[in-house]
Amino acid sequence: MTRFGIVGGGLMGHGIAVALARAGHAAAVHDVDPRTLAALPARVRRALAECGAGGPQAERTAARVTAAPALGDLVRDADVIVEAVPERLEVKHRVLAALESLAAPGTPVWTNTSVLSITRVAEGMAHPGRLVGVHWWNPPYLVPLVEVAPGARTERRLVDEACALLAAMGRTTVRLRRDVPGFVGNRLQFALVREALHLLDQGVCDPATIDTVMRSSLGLRWSAVGPMENADYIGLELTRDILGSLAPHLSSDTGAFPGIDVPLGEGRRGRSCGAGLLPWPPGRDAEVARRLSAGIRRNLAGPAAAGSGAPAPATR
Does the record's keyword annotation contain Oxidoreductase (predicted)? Predict the structure, then answer.
């Protein structure tokens, strides 16, 4: 059993704790907000129920997740520290500095940043070699993928150890060769989001149409066959011809995004205020959460149901 200390008990922090506990590890969670810590047991139980876990087994798993009211309590016994605070460099630098003032120099630190450069995150550290980028996907207790990346000064040994530990948990672990903002997944995801916003800005369709196209075509395909395999499958000549025809028309915007900027300017921030790109009437948020969870579980069960078995963890 590895003892993890998780700094940040929000959406990702508590979810990572549940994923670690389900793999048999202990996870102590610290958050500066006492209300977040007080809600930790209930959130852990809800996450386990979402995983289909119940009864004595769920109780044993939940007991592996504990609240650490003080940062020193968390660091003192941790074999690995996980940083899961908001995606702002100044916040991460402040938290990592506090951690280093309390932790032994050899304790590895995993940052769960999803978009920031690992090298930039490590800039404020006295021991930047200990920082490894370990990006879990939301919700961590359901989505098996974890992306691992080094910063410019990360010790290779710690990257190796992180990949081995995650693979032993049954996580689908991918290892990046170098540090790049957004890892692989978010770069792919937001390239698609940028093109979707471009279609809105050009008056091609409305937001609901974009979601319908994705869910009824690419969403069905990409859960089974990725874009690189599909390029080979249809042939690289055809793939090159399509790129040659489409690339000049695709968005290359890097600054203004009217499709998001306009609703934001009108106070339409999304789910939290009842409207964004789409309307969010009462109950829609819960319905989307249920649909998301059910869709992930259905996709994960698909290979086994088809008789091919679940995908094996892979380290690349």
Answer: yes
pTM: 0.91
20 near 27, Cβ under 8 Å? yes
pLDDT < 70 stretches in the chain: 303-316
In sequence order, the 6+-apart residues with CB closer than 8 A to the CB of 310 are 300, 303, 304
CA distance 9 to 277: 29
Class of domain 3-175: alpha beta
Cα gap 231→268, rounded to integer Å? 38
Identity (one letter) of the amino acid at 303? P
Q: Are 36 and 111 in contact (CB under 8 A)?
A: no
CATH number for the region 188-220+253-305 comes to 1.10.1040.10
How confident is the model at residue 108, as a pLDDT? 97
Predicted local confidence at residue 73, as pLDDT: 86
Token digits for 266?
């009108």
Q: Which residues contact 159 (CB under 8 A, 6 or more apart)?
A: 132, 148, 150, 175
Q: What integer pLDDT is reported at residue 309 of this predicted model?
A: 37
Closest CA to 206 of 214, 219, 197: 197
Residue owning tokens 């609240």: 67
φ, ψ dihedrals at 162, nearest 5°? -65, -45
Gap between the Cα atoms of 62 and 42, Å rounded: 10
